[in-house]
């Protein structure tokens, strides 16, 4: 469990379209085997330390001709941002994906003293 000391806690959130590969016959739509895409996200304000980040698929458009396989994670979390990484594999055909995210962490306060 992460404990946040002090009284200033920041919560940031957003929604990111990771790709729309059906529009241009991209790899997620036409490819096979392991595929991955990472999209950087910048927080609206930097945290004191890397925050907790949660990601979830908010829109998933895929072919019904194969099994649906998806893995989405928040990676490389820093004070100022992170990367949303989406993976699929096998014969899965994914047209487009949108991911919602939320970060929670400690923020600096003008009243905080660094002794």
TrEMBL record:
Database matches in Pfam families: H_lectin
Keyword annotations of the record: Lectin
Record-annotated H-type lectin domain positions: 39-101
Domain of life: Bacteria
GO cellular component: cell surface; phagocytic vesicle; protein complex involved in cell adhesion
GO terms, biological process: cell-cell adhesion
GO molecular function: N-acetylgalactosamine binding; oligosaccharide binding; polysaccharide binding
Keyword DNA damage assigned: no
InterPro entries: Galactose-binding_lectin (IPR052487), H-type_lectin_dom_sf (IPR037221), H-type_lectin_domain (IPR019019)
The protein, known as: H-type lectin domain-containing protein
Native organism: Cognatiyoonia koreensis
């Amino acid at each position: 469990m992460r404990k946040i000391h002090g009284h200033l806690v920041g919560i940031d959130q957003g929604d990111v379209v990771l790709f729309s590969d059906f529009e241009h016959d991209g790899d997620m739509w036409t490819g096979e085997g392991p595929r991955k895409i990472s999209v950087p996200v910048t927080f609206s304000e930097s945290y004191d330390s890397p925050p907790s980040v949660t990601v979830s698929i908010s829109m998933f458009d895929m072919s019904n001709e194969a099994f649906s396989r998806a893995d989405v994670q928040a990676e490389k979390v820093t004070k100022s941002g992170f990367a949303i990484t989406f993976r699929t594999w096998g014969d899965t055909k994914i047209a487009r994906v949108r991911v919602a995210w939320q970060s929670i962490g400690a923020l600096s306060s003008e009243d905080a003293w660094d002794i």
